[in-house]
Amino acid sequence: MSVNKIAIFARNFSQKTRVIASLFSSSNHSDSQSNATTSSNQFSNVTRNYSSSESIITSLKNYSKRVKFYDRSEHSPPTESQRETDQKNVEDILFDMFRQESTGLLPMGRFLAALRTTGIRRTDPRINEMMENLRKVHKTNNYEGGSPETLNLNRETFRAVIEPNIVLIARAFRHQFVVPDFLGFTKDIEEIYWKCKSNTDGKVASYIPQLARVNPDYWGVSVCTIDGQRFSIGDVHVPFTLQSCSKPLTYAVALECLSQKVVHQYVGQEPSGRNFNELVLDHNKQPHNPMINAGAILVCSLLQTLVHSEMTLAEKFDFTQNWFQRMAGGENFGFNNSIFLSEREAADRNYALGFYMREHKVFPEKTNLRECLDFYFQICSMETTADSMSVVAATLANGGICPITEEKVFRPDVVRDVLSLMHSCGMYDYSGQFAFNVGLPAKSGVCGGILLVVPNVAGIFTWSPPLDPCGNSVRGVQFCKELLQVFNFHRYDNLKHATNKKDPRRHRYETKGLSIVNLLFSAASGDVTALRRHKLSGMDMTLSDYDGRTALHLSAAEGHFDCIQFLLEQCHVPHDPKDRWGNTPLDEAETFEHDKIVEYLKNYDENVKSNGKEISSYNAPSHIPLIEMDPLKKSDSKDSLYDKSESSSPLPPTDSNDKLF
């Protein structure tokens, strides 16, 4: 229904009622009989025009409600103080949402469980103040046994507890994170996890004894979004060494501490097309990229000699470990000494790479090769968990800002360069196929881990020790492929038209809302071709907007007979749905004096009542020309199903945007 038409209709009615009032006044106060007679005649003419149609008078009550509903002129925009008051009331709204009706108190366990469903953990550093306040309340009240999370708080105490972190909490419950329906998203992740768990292919790495003894049944997946929403399933707290998963991290530290120009004076940016540990350099006599062994060793030499060269070996290790912990939001990064010793004992190939590069004068000056290789082995032997590595991946997905501490760890251009090389070189000899099938930056390691980055959305880390012939985790690669079958995360997925994939960044009902808008706009515009397209796509043609107005309402109000005929005879929609004001399509047609539609709907209603059900076809009144609704019967019809051009159904003029209501 057009808002302009509603306003015009109400305005005309108001003007005419004022005429009636003035006539009453003149008839009561006039001393002249002729004036009284004239006024009486005018009043009779006016009232006769309005009393001729009871349906219009009845509908005016509804229109007065509608005009009030749409008229916002008397409401001024909220002031700053009003906005502050609304913000202060967030705590009260949350309290009322979760309090117990019987006691009037809020169970904090229930509140924290609801917060967890949005993806925010109780250990999240961003709600440390709230948890600390909760512990203080628990201690102040001398509670014995139990935990602070078992407390039942009154309104004032609850407000005081959550006030320091109310902004984050409000965003969480308003679903203003990058993944609004986080619970639905995690259900899909869990389904993919169990699907991949049954895959028992592959063999664990065996070049050192410690890796060969790892349980091949370990399988864990951890997710962290750029808003700090976290989900983990499986063996995500079992420690493992980073191995090659450390290469993009050391490369990022080198870029941040030096610069792209300095780093790439020593190492290239191209995929090698060869094995990750092959004795080969590019045409500039440099390692091809930082994601292979030769390039990673060279990056370690840059960190060792060009970044804080005054540091000792122990200090340089602590320096690098601190960077890794900052990427992980302060979560633990340990060190596995037995892995380090085994790596150094089985390092003939890496030593050969080092001497080969030293022969070609690739290293910066003052590089001690043995110390450089020890530093490389130490970094590969750093130990962490899949749960912590997902935060590292999320930091890269978030442009270098850690999502759970909100600390800026890297510059955006550093992250851009790291992700570019992860995309082209991160999966050993499988990098090209992975970029084709998955289309996301990733880095794998012989530990069984895959660091997967969905830029501007989330970081994902999978860990499963069995490897394929290329050295990548079998379950991890399968998980990435399955993930891209469900979600439109591929770098070249079309976000607008890829309807067969889910977009977790959208709100649950956003897609449905857009479909309703398109359907109702087509009906208001009289676009039968578009209505056919919606019908063939399987859309529910009875969908309504928040006012309960359907496509049939709008077609009747705008006088589009062909749309009404299509909706009733081809789509079999109900002929008498009521909107929020109790109006049916027949009421709309009568209000706007579309006589043909009024007669059609009345006859249709009579046929329905006589037959006891909606009919699939109906003979319109003889003076109303029928329009061929079956596109397969007339291929040359103006509205043929195969008519690719929609020029036969032009959009309405300038006020078409109002016809959605």
Summarize it.
Residues 630-646 have a biased composition (Basic and acidic residues). This protein has four domains: 3-70, no CATH class; 86-173, Recoverin, domain 1 (Orthogonal Bundle), CATH 1.10.238.210; 189-486, Beta-lactamase (3-Layer(aba) Sandwich); 511-660, Ankyrin repeat-containing domain (Serine Threonine Protein Phosphatase 5, Tetratricopeptide repeat, Alpha Horseshoe). It has 661 residues and is mainly alpha-helical.
Describe this structure in words.
- It is an enzyme of class 3 (hydrolase).
- Pfam families: Ank_2, EF-hand_14, Glutaminase.
- Residues 25-45, 626-661 are annotated as: Disordered.
- Its EC number is 3.5.1.2.
- By secondary structure, this protein is mainly alpha-helical.
- The chain has four domains: 3-70, no CATH class; 86-173, Recoverin, domain 1; 189-486, DD-peptidase/beta-lactamase superfamily (Beta-lactamase, 3-Layer(aba) Sandwich); 511-660, Ankyrin repeat-containing domain (Serine Threonine Protein Phosphatase 5, Tetratricopeptide repeat, Alpha Horseshoe).
- Helices cover 50% and strands 6% of the residues.
- It contains 28 helices and ten strands.
- Strands 4-3-10-9-8 form a five-stranded antiparallel beta sheet.
- A hairpin with a 4-residue loop joins strand 3 and strand 4.
- Helix 1 (3-29) runs antiparallel to helix 2, helix 23 (510-525) packs parallel to helix 25 and helix 27 (585-591) packs antiparallel against helix 28.
- It is globular and about 95 Å long.
- The chain starts with a helix and ends in a 50-residue tail after the last helix.
- Residues 16-40, 42-75, 83-87 and 615-661 have low confidence and may be disordered.
